[in-house]
């Protein structure tokens, strides 16, 4: 069967395989093959493969299968992977326990199985968890070549946003000043710094900032990262960051509008704003765009919406969206 494959010289094969694996792009059902000095790595989503890699369609042999949770259960359970943790969202305790047992008895490299016990709550956006298997809620997540240590019981982190984070950070230039207003453990800050930018990450959750500092060190970008604990509105009141930013990330989709005055005060003479919102699907971009224009134009900036991007479906008739907006100081 022909499948999309990344074609890479054998000498670069392990680095490429590792990067694709960290982005969860390798099609595990097929074997990696070698021919005439080239390595062919089957991938599950050709559109998500970074542009630096060459894609081809070719025959790939089926891989000898490993035991999956579905093999043990007789049905395909729904779960997320985060490092060596599997996350469930099951209302039935007996079903949750059965799935968790199958997960740890399968060939998945998993230490802990958690079930969601509450919605995301509070200003730190953490949730309660039921530990079904294992002990620790701490793990190391790998994404597009970067490592993030985190504790799900103490910080907010969504593996589903990996592609979106990559989309944004691939736009970062090496001489930029990047400011993440709600930085968490650093999944925007660290890749931005790795591209040569000077990056500041602020978060009201002190544990998240501890992990951000650790992750900057893990990924060898500590010298270009400043991590600050506090409400970003209070931090930015310090004139040190007034007009400092060439790029601002506002990934707080339920309430980013409340922080637009602060974001605009951070903006340089020209600045790109990545504004996240949850909006009704009848007009997903209008509310955010109108809010940005009101604040930015009132502060003397011209507003150019460069990208209107749907990140994912959030709830029935609601979308998680991002507006990439260029602010330019009016003459």
UniProtKB/TrEMBL annotation:
Keywords: Cytoplasm, Methyltransferase, S-adenosyl-L-methionine, Transferase, tRNA processing. Residues 79-329 form the SAM-dependent methyltransferase TRM5/TYW2-type domain. GO terms for cellular component: cytoplasm. Pfam families: TRM5-TYW2_MTfase, Trm5_N, TYW2_N_2. Its EC number is 2.1.1.228. InterPro entries: MeTrfase_TRM5/TYW2, SAM-dependent_MTases_sf, TRM5-TYW2-like_MTfase, TRM5/TYW2-like_N, Trm5a/b_N. GO terms for molecular function: tRNA (guanine(37)-N1)-methyltransferase activity. SUPFAM superfamilies: S-adenosyl-L-methionine-dependent methyltransferases. GO terms for biological process: tRNA N1-guanine methylation. Signal peptide: none annotated. This is tRNA (Guanine(37)-N1)-methyltransferase Trm5b. It comes from Halalkalicoccus paucihalophilus. The lineage of its organism: Archaea, Methanobacteriati, Methanobacteriota, Stenosarchaea group, Halobacteria. The gene is trm5b.
